[in-house]
Amino acid sequence: MSKSIRVEEDTHAALASLKGDDETFDDLLTRLLRERREDIRAGAGLWAGSDAPERAREKRREMKRGVDSQ
Prior knowledge:
Blueprint: H1 9-18, H2 25-43, H3 52-68
């Protein structure tokens, strides 16, 4: 079953500029979604084995303390 979606003309133009000559808009959107998922997966685990998660948590705590004291 197919669905129609409305987009503004500038959005359509931006999508059209990303679309390959042999791609449909459905192909394009499917490709963009797949690439986004792959990008997210590629970033998973980058901090494994480092102290980066704890440093990030500490920075967040510092920032919250700064906001709470205002």
